[in-house]
Amino acid sequence: ILLLIRNPKDVATSFYHFTNVLSTLPSYDTWDDFFTAFMTNRMPWGSYFEYLSSWNKYADDENVMTITYEELKENRVLGVKNIAAFFGISLTEKELELVVERSSFQSMKKNSQKTHGAFGNILFRKGDVRDWKNLFSEDQNEKMDKAFEEHIAGTKLGRKLKYEVYCKV
């Protein structure tokens, strides 16, 4: 199982934009309204912190590889090599280059109409790391950091996210 996790702040930012363009999900008049709902577990898909906590019990299983979105953005070549090794797939240099090129956010967005139909424009917005800085107030940033510390910071997945988000990227 490949478990891809992402900085909760960017998850919230991405979900905010996603919910406001997908008519089957509740939309929010303001970022503040969305943030309140996100932080008080009033999202249709539940709490991201609870999601991470539920996966944490499998983090040490030998059949689970956890990778962060931030890791992949920082070094997609290394990420693809590690994923291929985890699944026991050997790639030639040419195959590796092809996977790396086709797995870039820009390439997936460009091909999203072919791969995901009309839904592609909704799924592939920006693909940035730290886009949360465009929405979060200082108070919201502190609240999210506090929730992160309370819910998952001490877990294996929490430590991985914290390292990738705060130390490397």
From TrEMBL:
Keywords: Transferase
Position of the signal peptide: none
Domain Sulfotransferase stretches: 1-155
EC number: 2.8.2.-
InterPro entries in alphabetical order: P-loop_NTPase (IPR027417), Sulfotransferase_dom (IPR000863)
GO molecular function: sulfotransferase activity
Highest taxon of source: Eukaryota
Protein family (similarity comment): Belongs to the sulfotransferase 1 family.
Name of the protein in its database record: Sulfotransferase
Natural source organism: Ceyx cyanopectus
